[in-house]
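Please review this pair:
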Amino acid sequence: GASDLSALLSQSDAGGWRVRGLSDVRRAAQAYAKRAGGAKQAVGAALAGGLVSTAVLRDVPYVPAALVGATGGAFAVQLPQGSRAGDAARQVGRQVATAWDWFVEECRHGAAASRRGRR
């Protein structure tokens, strides 16, 4: 009810509203990224897990299969250094992030070349 909402929101000094606990969420996300070896690496591991599980779990609908894999990848990057699953997830996450950075850079170069060609 209203008391739950007032526990979540508070008035800011600027006259607007502020969500309480948001700094806790931000701190947790930063700690997660640090344990994973970086935010890109964590996202890469989750993406790879989602893609692999979708391919492996062919009898499961795509979205649930992808969510299972993404959750597994996101969990695995949190495992301690030296664990096979954690190290593998971080390595794959790093490779996916590197591939993504390359792809984005190539798209930028292609778009710039395309704009130059239209002039």
Q: What stands out?
A: The radius of gyration is 20 Å.
